[in-house]
Amino acid sequence: MAGGGNAAPDLGALLGALPGSFRAAEEDGTWFVVGPTGAFVVAAAPADPAGAAARARALAAGLRARLDRTLGWSPFVEALVVTEEDHPLEGATRVPTRLLHDTIVCGPLLLDEPWVAALARCLEARAATV
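Predicted structure:
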């Protein structure tokens, strides 16, 4: 896609604009998001979409394991890679920057507030929150 597909989106600003029912936490340049529509790992892919997908996929698996150990249960954690390029990605969903908000917010409601709060506490234990 034309228009500087190699520029990294400001994920902090994008995820900070999510509704208040969502929590976002950053860890080493990758973001963890939890809200009523589920749990997500979000990675930007300005130059290496395959690497970002591998990182997001591994972090999603790690987050599921951490939540399961801590809470005895874990939702599915969706690995998202934010890129403007049309790259095939293994094990992660490619999302253009302009669709990130709707991809996270507009899905079916899967988690109620007590679960969102419990999941957010697990995230906050390891990462700086937005």
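Summary: The chain has one domain: 11-124.
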